[in-house]
Amino acid sequence: MPKNIMKRTTILVGAQWGDEGKGKIIDLLTENSDIIVRYQGGNNAGHTVRYGDKKFILHLLPSGILHPGKKCVIGNGVVIDLEAFFHEIEILRESNVFVKNRLFVSDRAHLIFPYHRLLDQLREGQKGSGKIGTTKRGIGPCYADKADRLGIRVADLMNPKVFRDRLTYVLKEQNHILQAVYRHQPFSFSKIHREYTHYRDRLSPFVCSTELLLAEAHRAKKRILFEGAQGTHLDVDHGTYPYVTSSNASAGGAITGTGLSPAHIEEVIGVVKAYTTRVGEGPFPTEFPPALMAMVRELGEEFGATTGRPRRCGWFDALLVKHSVLVNGLSKMAVTKLDVLDTLPTIKICVAYQYKGKQFRNFPADQEVLAHAKPVYVECPGWLEQTSHIREWKKLPAKAKSYLTRLEDMLETRISIVSIGSERLQTIFIDGK
Ligand code: IMP
């Protein structure tokens, strides 16, 4: 990989609705990094990474953990399910990947509790057609508690007295909601207290002030890579609200979610799929009709890495990604899964939305427009050749290069990586064309 493909302090974000293939790109960029940092989300993520002849799906730990010698940080903006955390460490240990002395967890990160998972399920169950289609991992209720000053942080768990007092207070509130609103049985204080006290001893060696660790690493000129989870359009501020996750999945989240100064960030790279997918509910103007959907889903193996749900698939939406270029300040893009389009005779790119006689060239916030807009497409001829064996830009079929160049022009952003398969080697680095 060319050394200049990334700068010393780089944020990598998904530029669509998640599942852009960030796991593979992070894995590649990890080679050029010293520290890899997760800054938001939790075990709702599913980053698929190949390591040797094995495939790992990491939900909570930074993908860099598969590289021996690299340090990994779970920042304060992440919500941590300790059961998932230790389960993932165990899976890695079984494959001789060890995390001791190289995995660091922020003492300010918030913890997911069993009542968060339950509330996520109960709320989704009650919403009927208004449901979000969450991963039911308790992510939303945990972030809601954080904002409502009802959260419990890692530092709170580490102090037995604080933890006892805090859990007593918080559980009273949670049990009240469970009983009064959902007619559900309350949680037992002693059961949760026992379970989490047990976690305390196991978690303690990983806990530190990660903002200090990162500030020192930056001063020592270490290379820091921020691993965004989900995607910009699932961001609670910039996404297709309310069909979003509950964290800042865009580049801004890397600042609030780690405590590293924005002045230290040198670049933001966006990962985009060569077409579009989304899991869960919410507007999707360029969604394919059923037959094409089934075909591309099969070709692209588009099934959720966390929940196994089939992903919805559609044409590339330039308005969607243009919005991501803007709110993240993308300077480069990595385009993934180009090979999935190899057999399509015509490939469409959405360049505008049409709604009630008005044409939209920028991604609108209005839910009604998004739900009913008719996409305006330009058509590109398909290349109808296999690309997954190609390793150089100049060897790509002319029509594939033309499709990618068209995307670059529309988005005013350079493509520096093209992925044409899940293996590390199935990658084209573009270092000047
Ligand atoms: P939550 O994050 O579980 O609350 O789910 C909220 C929305 O974000 C749902 O539409 C999920 O399908 C979606 N979502 C959450 N995490 C991911 C992800 O890693 N990839 C794709 N979609 C996600």
Provide structural commentary:
With 433 residues, the protein is an alpha/beta fold. Among the domains are: 97 residues, Adenylosuccinate Synthetase, subunit A, domain 2, CATH 1.10.300.10; 162 residues, Adenylosuccinate Synthetase, subunit A, domain 3 (Adenylosuccinate Synthetase, Chain A, domain 3). It is built from 13 helices and 20 strands. The protein has a 10-stranded mixed sheet, with helices on both faces. Strands 14, 16, 17 and 18 form a 4-stranded mixed sheet that branches. A two-stranded antiparallel sheet has the order 3-4. Helix 3 packs across helix 4. The longest helix has 21 residues. The chain is globular and about 65 Å long. 46% of the residues are buried. The mean pLDDT is 96. The structure holds inosinic acid. The site of inosinic acid (IMP) has 20 residues, from helix 4.
Classified by CATH, the class of the domain at 272-433 is Alpha Beta
Instruction: Give the structural class.
Output: alpha/beta
N→C terminal distance: 15 Å
Bound molecules: inosinic acid
Q: Topology of this structure?
A:
Blueprint: E1 9-14, H1 22-30, E2 35-38, E3 47-51, E4 54-58, E5 71-74, E6 79-80, H2 82-94, E7 103-106, E8 110-111, H3 114-127, H4 139-147, H5 154-158, H6 160-180, H7 189-203, E9 207-208, H8 210-219, E10 224-227, H9 252-256, E11 267-273, E12 276-278, H10 290-299, E13 312-314, E14 316-317, H11 318-328, E15 332-336, E16 346-355, E17 358-360, H12 367-372, E18 374-381, H13 398-411, E19 414-419, E20 427-429
Parallel strand pairs: 1-10, 1-11, 2-5, 2-10, 5-7, 6-8, 7-9, 11-15, 14-16, 15-19
Antiparallel strand pairs: 3-4, 12-13, 16-17, 16-18, 19-20
Helix pairs in contact: 3-4
Inosinic acid is lined by residues 18-19, 44-46, 132-135, 137, 139-140, 229-230, 234, 243, 245-246, 279-280.
